[in-house]
Design a protein that fits this description.
This protein has 242 residues and is mainly beta. The protein contains no helices and 16 strands. The strands form 3 sheets. Strands 2, 3, 4, 5, 6, 8, 9, 10, 11, 13, 14 and 15 form a 12-stranded mixed sheet that branches.
């Protein structure tokens, strides 16, 4: 007797668009030394977007570095010389990958990072910052979430010190492909001569030796991801004897 064959079909091939998978409830954006890869036009290398002009600009401050939801792998830092009479230092600029269209509500943002000063008479206060929505497709700043380079109130030690600042942020509306850009700053109670150092890209939050600096949003931030496709096709299976 001839065998019996049955062929099972698991449906036609399907195209699944995963470009709108959200990134979950994680609200932290970690600061990295790595370059960011975003199409379009980002801010010019040498210019801060703050309404405040920095007294000192750290070497490499205007380089577009990465800010994302992955914790760092090895701490790095930037040190800047300051003198009496200085009022602000702009340290670094960080850019997210492309964002999905979404509202970001008004609310409190947390800046959590480590810093130090070379001698106590430098009188540096941390962490100030500037956070804004940027549209690479037009090369324009859409709006500030906050512009608070002098909001810092904590003077770090002469050794690495974790400092936390809470800043009130305004609401913004994100379109597909927009990015968030964050600048780290500090100001001075009454500056003296010495150096200030900002630490980031480490493996451990709140650490005084390997600091995973981050900003924390009042809501989850969703990134755009690459589309992928699934083609299950037809699958046959023999059942019975020959």
């Amino acid at each position: 007797m001839p065998g019996v064959y049955r062929r099972r079909f698991f449906g036609p091939r399907r195209n699944v668009d995963r470009s709108r998978w959200t990134s979950g409830a994680n609200t932290k954006l970690y600061l990295h030394d790595a370059a960011v890869s975003v199409g379009g036009v980002l801010p010019a290398t040498g210019s801060s977007q703050s309404a405040t002009t920095p007294t000192r600009t750290a070497t490499g401050a205007g380089t577009n570095r990465l800010m994302d939801k992955t914790i760092g792998v090895a701490q790095t830092s930037v040190t800047t010389n300051v003198t009496a009479g200085d009022t602000t230092v702009w340290h670094r600029r960080y850019v997210t990958p492309s964002l999905q269209a979404q509202p970001i509500p008004a609310g409190n943002w947390t800046i959590d990072a480590a810093s130090s000063e070379s001698v106590a008479t430098v009188n540096a206060t941390f962490n100030g910052g500037v956070l804004y929505l940027w549209r690479p497709s037009t090369g324009a700043r859409v709006g500030y979430i906050f512009d608070q380079p002098t909001v810092g109130a904590t003077e770090p030690s002469t050794t690495e010190t974790n400092v936390v600042t809470v800043v009130a942020g305004s609401a913004v509306t994100v379109l597909d492909g927009d990015v968030l850009i964050f600048e780290t700053w500090n100001d001075f109670a009454s500056s003296g001569t010495g150096t200030v150092t900002a630490y980031y890209d480490g493996t451990t939050e709140d650490s005084a030796s390997n600091n995973a600096a981050y900003i924390k949003a009042p809501t989850g931030i969703d990134f755009l991801t690459v589309k992928s496709f699934v083609y299950p096709g037809k699958i046959g299976r023999r059942i019975g004897a020959l």
